[in-house]
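Forgive a beginner's question, but would it be possible to get a protein, spelled out as residues, together with the matching structure tokens, please?
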Amino acid sequence: MRRSAAVRKLMRRQRKPSELQLVSMIDIFTVLVTFLLMTAIFSRTVVLDLKLPSNNASFPELPKGLNLEVIVRSNELTVADRGTGPLRTLPNTAKGYDLDGLTEYLKFVKSRYPDKTEATILLEPDTPYNTMIEVMDRTRVVEVNAGLQTVQAELFPEVSIGDAPIPVGDAPAAGTGAKK
């Protein structure tokens, strides 16, 4: 069916030019950018730089002063100086390791040696991984209340790990072989 010229002219006047609706598109992009920014902040990974012992038999001469060691045993934590021996022994509590006592004592040591940044954590072979991480965290930083916020203060951030020495009473006698 053909329309007359007058009807076609009338329809052309009533038809509006098509417009691009950008408001809904801008809303979608705003939500998307906000979501991406928020998730990008929480997806950071933490990488610790550990100093592992080398296979080289010759060791450089150690500087004078404190050589801090934290020895993790199954029944206690011991804070020691490599040159002078144990400084403090923290027996296990009913909850497990006395990590709060360790933190308090390391804060005391840091107050006496403020420039010291190195510490060595010595672990028994059967020490659980989570225990190692908890002791490393307590050795590296301490949480301090600053007004309404809790901030992390540096204790001994340069952490090395190694094997704990065998206690004197547990060493096998000469010529008897391994302990059964």
